[in-house]
Amino acid sequence: MVPKGAVIPGFEQLKKNKKLSKIWQFRHIYLFLLPAIIWFLVFAYYPMYGILIAFKDFKFNLGILGSPWAGFKYFEQFLNDSSFYDVLRNTLSISALKLIFGFPAPLILALMLNAVMHKRIKRVFQTISYLPHFVSWVVVVTLLQKILSPNVGLINDIRYQMGLDPIFFMGKPELFYPLVIISDIWKGVGWGSIIYLAALTNIDPHLYEAAEIDGAGRWSKLFKITLPCLTPTIGILLIFSLSGILNAGFDQIWLMQSPATLSVSEILDTYVLKTGLQQGQLAYSTAIGLFKSAISLLLIVAVNNISRRVSNVSLW
Amino acid sequence: MRKNKRRSVLGMALIALLLFMTMTACTGTGGKEEAGTNEPGPKESGTEEIKPVTLTFLSAWNGGGAGFPQDQENNPVAGQIREKTGVTLKLESITTSEVEKLNTIFASGTVPDIVNAPFWSTTGGEGQVIKKAATEGQLLDLTPYLDKYPNVKRLVTTGIAKDFAEFDLNSPEFEGKTYLIPTETPDGTPESIHNWNYGLFARGDILKALNVKAEDIDTQEELYELLVKIRDGGFKDIGGKPVIPAGTMWNGWDYGQFLAGWTDYTISDYREVDGKLIHWTQSKDHEARLLYMRKLITEGLFDLEAFNNTSTTANEKLTTGKLAVFGAQPMLADLQKTLYKTNPEMQYELLGPMKNKSGNIRTQVEKPGRSGFPVLFLSADIKDPDAALRYIDYVNSEEGRLLAYFGIEGTHYTMENGIPQWIPDVKKQFDDNPDLKRDAGLNYLPGRFIGAFSSEVTWPTPEDQKTEWQKLEESFSARMPIQIIDKVSASYLAREWPKYQEYIDKTSSLNFDEEFKKAFFAASDEEALNMLHSVQEKFRAAGVEEMAEFVAQKAAERDDVGF
Predict the structure, then answer these.
(1) What residue ranges in B120-230 does DSSP mark as E strands?
(2) Cβ of A62 and B300 within 8 Å?
(3) pLDDT tens-digit readout, B438-471
(4) Which of A122, A128, A291, B158 is deepest in the core (most CB within 10 A)?
(5) B298 near A CB under 8 A
(6) Does some domain include residue A55?
(7) CATH code (residue A207)
(8) Distance from A13 to chain B by nearest Cα, in Å?
(9) What pLDDT does residue B431 have?
(10) Mean pLDDT, range B115-130, rounded to an integer
(11) Which residues span the membrane (chain A) (predicted)?
(12) Domain count, chain A
């Protein structure tokens, strides 16, 4: 009998060897990880040293490492920038709205699809709802512009035939957020529902059978079985969504933006592009980007901790 | 057991091979390797050995690829240049913002061998980026090469406004080095300054229906009244849909034509108002300009999507007669192939010309030389700078210019009394289908490689050979003659202001025009004016008033300064 806490000589080594031999046993499978690891190293970790620009007075000829240090100058500049509060407010507003309306949408669609008994109809609806995911934002926004244009748009053509004045939908600040949210849901809802549909198939059918015997109705089963069983999936996806709360959706916003809606549509990502690549303030825009990443990291850590304590669901 | 091992080894090998193939498939082996390389070529008898060289060329102009021939390397003009210089160009263009592209190539160290980009000043936009790149070692110093290439040397000294040459083209921060080669510059004579014919153009059939003479519309009030009549007149485009009374081309270019009444003949950032010098951002006129644009927008007289127009949507509106009035250049290259063929009655007429603040007609203002133009520069990493300069020098020689503008002698033109004349059949083909001219290689060189020259001055087209569109352009130019102001721009005096750099740093992220356009769409006039005053206040906070006082003092010390 080995006393509790006693160290067996060579035990750690044995454990390590066991792990290594297990890896060797499944070496073919591990090899498949290699492209992903290389991809991350090359495209995610290697470029990361570029964030040093945020702390430097970047000179083209001296490069990232050779440029002189500037300390937190550019972070201070951003915090004192007259656009700071507007940009932050817009980013948070759009992200929060996307979270409130966009996050539950795939779950609702998945539940609805799950309730469709006829397999072929279910597949047709699934396919239709997935398709917009594969259409690029350029196409989606162009379509929106074509449909909503005050001059040649379908909606305004109908209004014109009815003797009504045209409305510049894409140029009304009060309509900007609804259009952003609706188009975002339209594009992503089908794709987002895949994970929920997969999770739904994992729920043990015996639970439903038992509930039916006990006289549970459709809604009771939903709230007492389905949603509780989906909680881990919902939790993980919520953590992911919150970590990206400052990513309000660059492609979409950039394409939908116009002078008429700039007051509500300038977000951190579009501001980074404008100050960085259009005004040539590379260090300043990197500082803004880093600011965004740092806040996102804090958010994901905080949300992960809260989620672990509240629902036992966490990423780590 | 052995069999299993062999299978395992084989499996591993296959997986490794698969991975290797996947990864190598992702690494491009495109033309980049060829760029800038040179190989020994055949030696022509009696001439210096010319090595074939392939160089990369970027036209950093949004939409600048429109003039590129379909076959970049084997069109007649490119073939002839290769024969003479050994150089083949791989052409690249952009469809995004110029300054964005420049920042990208400089920051990533991927500067093509030769670049042509806008250079309007060194205090903002593209010019500022190019200056930074030059002072930070990204551009090749051309000084040691200039004596070897006389045509290139002529380009850097001819047709450039004196003050612009001193402070921008040869910025003191360049420390006497030459980095930039101007193109599209005049030959040094006033006649060779190009008239861009900016103005307002109205659909002829609509003016006729309204019984309005185009030349009678020359004030802001008359313009407004005309637009109201158009809006209420129920006019249609070629598809039978209602017209838009007023609009622009892409990204709102050039809405300023609708505000011509508040312009004046200016060559600097400063204005004299009631005996005091002010910076242009502080002008009271902005209020009137803003309220006028708001009136057009809120009353349904101006295209709400004008500032979102892409080149495609703008062209669609233009070529379908959707815009009753547009502000820009006459756009004949697009219209002659489309609307003017299908609906000649809709041909646009020049309004006014509009009168400016002083009651004079609003026209293009120039100094004796040009201030701001496209420039060529070479990458500091170019492997064969002589090849690039040989190319530029050749196309700017007499022989090269003939080739660039008229093509191959005997095929496209013949020489008569020292003046090139198009071969009639070729001319007819090119006039009927301008794309054929482009594909012969006759469009991309004049604007991007040639300077200190005017084809119209050197080889004026005989009257009987002019197309109706050339005649139309000339009629516009005749009505809007260029104003020449032979003074030094007061803007340059500000650079001596001790706090100038501090001012530049504070205003670098301020975009007056963007804020101004935002205000067009504000909920009320009051809010719009507040937005305007807010951006004006930001410039004041950066010290713009103190700067204007400094400039006024400096200007008073000399008599050659113009505002």
Answers:
(1) 181-182, 199-203
(2) no
(3) 999 998 898 899 999 998 889 888 888 888 898 9
(4) A291
(5) no
(6) no
(7) 1.10.3720.10
(8) 27
(9) 83
(10) 90
(11) 29-55, 92-113, 134-155, 175-201, 222-246, 282-303
(12) 1
Largest CA distance in chain B: 102
A8: in domain: no
Give the closest residue to A194 by CA, choosing from A282, A107, A86, A263.
A107
For A279, which of B317, B508, B518 is closest by C-beta distance? B508
Q: So what's the pLDDT on residue B11?
A: 53
Give yes or no for residue B160 having a pLDDT over 80.
yes
Identify all chain A residues contacting B12, using CB atoms and an 8 Å cutoff.
Answer: 27-28, 31
pLDDT of B352 over the 90 cut: no
Residue whose tokens read 């009815």: A162
- Measured between beta carbons, the chain B residues lying within 8 angstroms of A280 are 99, 102-103, 128-129, 132
DSSP conformation letters of chain A: -PPTTPPPTTHHHHHHHHHHHHHHHTHHHHHTHHHHHHHIIIIIIGGGGGGGGGGB---TTTHHHHSPB-TTHHHHHHHT-TTHHHHHHHHHHHHHHIIIIITHHHHHHHHHHHH---HHHHHHHHHHHHGGGGS-HHHHHHHHHHHH-TTT-HHHHHHHHTTPPP--GGG-HHHHHHHHHHHHHHHHHHHHHHHHHHHHHTS-HHHHHHHHHTT--HHHHIIIIIHHHHHHHHHHHHHHHHHTTT---HHHHHHH--GGGHHHH--HHHHHHIIIIIT--HHHHHHHHHHHHHHHHHHHHHHHHHHHHHHS----
**Residue at A181 is within a domain:** yes
ipTM above 0.85, yes or no: no
Query: Could you list the residue range(s) of the whole structural domain that residue A228 is in?
Result: 73-311
Chain A residue numbers with beta carbons less than 8 Å from the beta carbon of B133 are 60
CB contact B215 to A (< 8 Å)? no
Whether A263 is in a domain gets the answer yes
pLDDT per residue as tens digits for the range B230-264: 999 999 999 888 999 999 998 899 999 999 999 98
- Model pTM score: 0.78
Select the more confidently predicted residue: B414 or B97.
B414
